[in-house]
Design brief:
Blueprint lengths: L1 H13 L22 E8 L3 E11 L2 E9 L5 E12 L4 E13 L10 E14 L4 E12 L2 E13 L4 E11 L2 E11 L1
């Protein structure tokens, strides 16, 4: 019941953002980063492969979809809505409310079979220089009555405006503590 109330409160609080009328017919991005991207990644320990997609639907909101797998009958998929807002000229506050679906397949994780739940997270993205971005997030997951805290930190080098490479460390996520190597294509 508590989780349902929290999720409903977040949806109601963010619903006014969809009612904003743009008199000029163009959506101005109110952030320091692009939230329109396709992401491909490889995880280490355990070895996983993943992809993510994000698309802005409002100057301060975006849709997110992502999936990771060891290709052993397992997967960790998430989809939902995220928000972003500038903190200053070099940093954004981010957050997301995601539906999670996981299946441990033939691995030795504690969860067996397909399970569903939710994830709520808050994070920060920060420019350290013209081409170097760092960030992190902390979140709460509830998957099949298993509540847990998750986190991640990352660094990303933007070689051009449309392409970047990065390293991310995930803590206490579905595949445990994991190091990810990522490539991101902005569109």
């Amino acid at each position: 019941m508590r989780k349902t109330i929290i999720a409903a409160a977040l949806v109601l609080a963010s619903s006014s953002a969809f009612a904003v009328d743009d008199p000029y017919g163009s959506a101005a991005t109110m952030s320091n980063f692009s939230y329109d991207y396709v992401d491909a990644r490889i995880g280490v320990s355990p070895v996983t492969y993943g992809a993510a997609f994000s698309r802005s639907i409002h100057p301060n909101a975006h849709v997110i979809a992502r999936v990771d797998s060891e290709f052993d009958g397992d997967y960790d998929a998430a989809g939902g809505l995220g928000f972003h807002a500038p903190i200053n000229n070099w940093a954004d506050l981010t957050g997301a409310m995601l539906f999670r679906m996981t299946d441990s397949g033939n691995t030795s994780n504690s969860l067996k079979g397909t399970d569903t739940g939710m994830e709520l997270n808050l994070g920060v993205r920060q420019w350290l220089g013209p081409q170097l971005e760092v960030g992190g997030k902390a979140g709460y997951t509830s998957i099949d009555e298993k509540d847990d805290w998750i986190g991640s930190i990352y660094g990303r080098f933007h070689s051009t405006e449309l392409f970047s490479i990065g390293v991310e460390a995930r803590f206490n996520d579905f595949y445990g503590d994991q190091l990810m190597f990522t490539t991101r294509f902005n569109y």
